[in-house]
Amino acid sequence: MQLKIKRTLTLVESQLVDHQGHEATPPLVKAAVVVVVDNPFAGRYVEDLSPYVKDSVRIGELMGRMAVEAMAGREVQSYGKGAIVGINGEQEHAAALLTSDFAAPIRRAIGGGKAWVSSYVKVAPPGTLIDVPMNHTNAIYVRSHYDGVTLTLHESPAPDEIALIFCLASRGRLNARVGGLRAEDVKGEDGLV
Known about the structure:
By secondary structure, the protein is α+β, with helices and mostly antiparallel strands. It has helices at 50-71, 91-97, 100-110, and strands at residues 5-17, 23-38, 78-85, 118-123, 129-136, 147-152, 161-169. The protein is built from three helices and seven strands, in the order ββαβααββββ.
């Protein structure tokens, strides 16, 4: 099975000044890449979702290229994934597309990532907000990188579509100061000091 890709979208935001008016050094750059696909399983129960898992690799490769372009050479320090399933589908349809098979080519494209990728999936009509959670790429316990991206896809997903979303950021939150493991302390094979 090869899911039909119907549209793509890339959003990039650069936060140059914090809420107190201080210049952000370096700026916080967040990107979201979106691929909307047909959902041939919409409207019916299908026990075996492995065809979605298998095709997710191809979609992950595309989204990895989109992510690299969106980040324009900046280091990726945090990431997250999500999906909105059209109302004739179910959460499991997107869950099958967002496994580690999907994420592996994105990780390769952005230069790695040892930590699991936070995720959120919902069934909803077009125009619904989704908050995609994010965490540090190499250690989920880096509190400064607990963040997210909120998106509204005004035209997607149709009842028989799935909008897949991958978000990235160049650093942690501006003015993060709640302690815990620091990003600069993350290294090594296990993601820790």
